[in-house]
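Z., the sequence and structure:
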Amino acid sequence: MNTRKQTRNKIPREKEGLKERIKALEVASAKEIVDQMFAIMDGIEGAIYVADMKTYELLHVNSYIRKHFGNDLVGKKCYKVLHNHQDKPCAFCTNDRLIIDGKPGPPLIWDYFNNRTGFWYQYIDRAIRWTDGRLVHMQVAIDITDRKKAEIGSRRSERFLNTIFQSINDPFNIIDSDFRIIKANESYARMRGKTIEQLMYQRCYEVIMGRNDICEGCSVKQTFETGEPQTKEKLANYTGDSNIWIEIYTYPIFDEIGRVVSVIEYTRDITKRKRAEDERDILVNKLIQLSRTDDLTGLLNRRALIERLGDEVQRSCRYRSNLALIICDIDYFKEINDIYGHVAGDKVLQMISSLIRDLLRQTDIIGRYGGDEFLLILPETSIEGAREIAERIQRAVETFEVHIGFDNPIKTTVSLGVAQFNIDKEDTNDLIKRADDALYIAKGKGRNRVYLIND
């Protein structure tokens, strides 16, 4: 019986001894781990310290802390020497969060700006067992000042660029190499009839144009391929309301090895400018027309006639083609003005010019050459063809009556001189002179007739 009792008492004592030996091994292992860790980390550009989690006293510091905070630190409270000489633990202290169910939990990683050093640190806080077996707070603070300054500078630059980006009144966006919109301002979204959220990271040709592939003549594609800025004008309708004219500018953005990685697309609504240009063109054309048109009859004036005749003479010389000229003069026109007045004379001029114009072919050219004279240019026409046209005009005017409110209609006749261009002998002035000579002879022979000079 006594032997059994002695055996039972011996077993607990052996268990207690085993626990103590295991604990001693754990402590030795922890010390070895801590010593190895500090041997490795002591030369790293970052702060490492171990502090008692209850008393906040420093148990170990590395060379970085000694360099910036002094050598005599072990045994002092961490918040007094490392955090601006505070009188109590820091408000951000992580001691309570490092222990979970009485055991070390996962490490905590966070960034902090130290006012005393003026540096940014990334803290890695962890609870570990110290050489005597107690849980202590180990903190590794890596100097990330340069990185933080870069991040702050980057955010500041981004805010600055975003402010500029959104302040641009004209539509503005950036497209990546996959033709996805990676940046857009409100003006761009509004012009396209979309929201920025609908546009972002969508392919431009899909979300804007409803296409399955890149648009023909795409300026963005050309900039990606050539690396050169492009400019383009086009008529567009994005909202379904009305067509607008836009001017598109594209600029390449290169990476460090010179590849085009994205393209800036800057768009301007130039509808007002285009309308102004159209109105200007209409006005210019109208002014040109007025400068070449006779106010009374609406026919070409003398200057325009000479220009057209010069063109036809050149064409006749180039292609060796026929060209005929008729000068037509209203007979006794001065008497019409004297008897009926100049207003009536103007009416006669208008009606006779309209009558002659209607008798000509579409390719023929008529204009007012002088007071009561008309010049008729007949391309691709022989002398005999010109005679037929002239005689048709002479007969039509002879039977024509002008009714403009008098008791009796006004009747008149015309005399016509006809000449054919001699390609090998004469120029424009020669042709006009021969037609004018023919007219003079027609009038001298009694008027109301056609006379030809064929040489």
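The chain is about 45% helix and 25% strand. The CA atoms of residues 69 and 82 lie 7 Å apart.

Let me know what you think.
H.
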